[in-house]
Amino acid sequence: MRMVKMTFTRHVIVALAGVAIFTQVLPAQAESVVKLPPAAVDPAVATKRATAVLAGGCFWGVEGVFSNVKGVVSVESGYHGGNKATARYELTHDGTSGHAEAVRIVYDPTQVSYGTLLRVLFSVIADPTLKNRQGPDSGPQYRAAIVPMDAAQRQVATAYLAQIAKGKYFAKPIVVPVESYKAFYRAEPGHQDFMRLNPTNGYITRWDAPKLAALRRLFPDLVRARPAP
Prior knowledge:
CATH class: Alpha Beta
Largest sheet: 5 strands, antiparallel
Low-confidence stretches: 1-30
Radius of gyration: 17 Å
Number of domains: 1
Oligomer: single chain
Number of strands: 10
Strand order of the largest sheet: 9-4-6-5-10
Distance between the termini: 29 Å
């Protein structure tokens, strides 16, 4: 078997026969977990399918948590904010590409609302008071961001950020941007469904498994029996 060692800013992994194995994690603080209220502005959407693009740090955990939310049909890891030429994992880590590691969520609005997705994002996945970092990862590529796909989503997003800021659920100001959608570029195959396929990976067990545990603890009614693809 051919072994290739790859060093990334987030962590060091070894790829053995195409499977990533954790070897070292850079120390940092974990995100906070806060049970936020439902979105006050969250109108019903009369369609069976809608798309959301959200960023919340390393896309492994963001994808892993949202794939366990009821009403989510599918989740893809990818890049948002830059151009196609730099939409590659190794080209995003100097922070100059404009990309954020993000996820594209296809969901059923009759089962889970856009406001609920934002509630999950900021309750258990990403700390909205951190600028250009989450957990052990720093740089604009790890920023948390909301990327509305239409005017209705933008209305919900701006209203929810204002709502949780007014409620003072966090000790620091909320700095999450609402960004305009440009394009979403699907990440490399090895990054898709990473959390489910690599449950013993050191980064997953240290930083992402606790997020999924928090989802199950705080919002048991939102958890689906089996993860979405």
